[in-house]
Amino acid sequence: MTRASLDKQPHEVASMFDDVAANYDLTNDVLSLGQDRRWRKEVAKAVNARPAEKVLDLAAGTATSSLTFAATGAYVVPCDFSLGMLREGKKRHGWMPFTAGDATRLPFADEVFDAVTISFGLRNVQDTDLALRELYRVTKPGGRVVICEFSHPTWAPFRTVYEEYLMRALPPTARAVSSNPDAYVYLAESIRDWPDQPALAARLQGAGWSKVAWRNLTGGVVALHRGVRA
Ligand SMILES: C[S@@+](CC[C@H](N)C(=O)[O-])C[C@H]1O[C@@H](n2cnc3c(N)ncnc32)[C@H](O)[C@@H]1O
């Protein structure tokens, strides 16, 4: 069983997700106490995919995140570099155009997507800034980006309780439900290490995105960042 570390070596990250692919969605539901479904609805609202628009769902995994965009009639491309996650997705949603690709070298031409989005994926990419620039490259001028990622609760007492949950309760719970509990130790560590809301917004601006803003969900446990390609 593979567990990535904070240097996020791509082959370790990919094989860690290969290992958890079969139980990934169930484990998410349990560990997020069902909140993930609400977060996904908010991402869909923020992306606001319209019929026939081309939407890239990067780090799509099993494509659970992609389904909400496809429901509006948009053409959604789920892309990921874990073949295990892609295979699991293909079994369930064979009609979707699953594409193998690395976030730092996207297999798409310049300026092809109306919207690009990434849910719970950017934190796992070794070079965040390069991935943000790649997302920018493949987006049409006027197109938009939405990033859904774990973040940092803004109210200090809640932040303390949440960090306790992450570091103490999450790993034993994961042991009960996941095929690779160590992957959830990485999850906790990588969330703690991730930039806070203003810092991620600055990274988006640095990659060229305009009108960057964010909204907190569940008190900042998750943040939705958005931006536009001018
Ligand atoms: C936590 S899962 C999220 C899956 C899905 N977006 C969701 O919301 O359920 C993170 C995904 O990011 C993918 N990933 C991590 N680094 C990547 C990279 N450099 N290129 C493409 N995919 C990557 C992993 O393979 C994994 O499937």
From TrEMBL:
Name of this chain's protein: Demethylmenaquinone methyltransferase
Domain of life: Bacteria
Sequence positions that bind S-adenosyl-L-methionine: 62, 80, 102-103, 119
InterPro entries linked: SAM-dependent_MTases_sf, UbiE/COQ5_MeTrFase, UbiE/COQ5_MeTrFase_CS
Key word Zinc present: no
Provenance organism: Streptomyces paludis
One term of GO molecular function: demethylmenaquinone methyltransferase activity
Listed SUPFAM superfamilies: S-adenosyl-L-methionine-dependent methyltransferases (SSF53335)
